[in-house]
Amino acid sequence: MGAIMSARHSQVMTLETALKSSERWKTIQLASILPLFLCTVWIFYFQIASESGIMTFFLILTVGVLIPEVKGDLTETHIMLREELAEQRMELRQLLREELQPLLKDPAIRDLLKDNTVSPKV
Questions:
Q1: Cα–Cα distance for residue pair 66/29, rounded to 1 Å
Q2: Is residue 94 assigned to a domain?
Q3: How many domains is the chain partitioned into structurally?
Q4: Residue 101 to residue 16: CA distance in whole angstroms
């Protein structure tokens, strides 16, 4: 019972961490819009696109917008896959219970389970 509670607690903590990570990437992405906009205005204001201006623009675009977008998508995919895995495990448990119930009602199988001399500490 303790192992199940520990596993569920671990899953909840992992989910919370993934959600915080997703929020962090979204914040980084939102914060990078202003420097990206300022860099664009700077380039058009002086009507010259110097190498450093273009490099700065694409560096901000890459580091501030594209990388957080990819990381955020990966985090959301991770969350969705964990939720689907948990749902499939619950469905599998339910199916196993439904299939084992008729078998456990058989008196011969009950006698075999009672006569089982194998120690659980093996």
A1: 8
A2: yes
A3: 1
A4: 36
pTM over 0.85: no
**Interval 9-19: pLDDT, tens:** 677 777 788 77
Residue 6 lies in a domain: no
Amino acid at 121: K
Q: Is residue 1 part of a domain?
A: no
Measured in whole angstroms, how far is the alpha carbon of residue 60 from the centre of its chain?
A: 26
Sequential DSSP letters for 55-73: HHHHHHIIIIIIHHHHHHH
- Helix-strand-coil split of the chain, %, nearest 5: 85, 0, 15
List the domain range (segments joined by +) for residue 51: 16-114
Query: What residues have CB less than 8 Å from 20, skipping those under 6 apart?
Result: none
Q: What confidence tens digit (pLDDT) does each residue in 88-113 have?
A: 999 999 998 888 888 777 777 777 77
Q: For residue 99, give both structure tokens.
A: 């299939």
Q: Is residue 7 part of a domain?
A: no
The helix/strand/coil state of 103 is helix
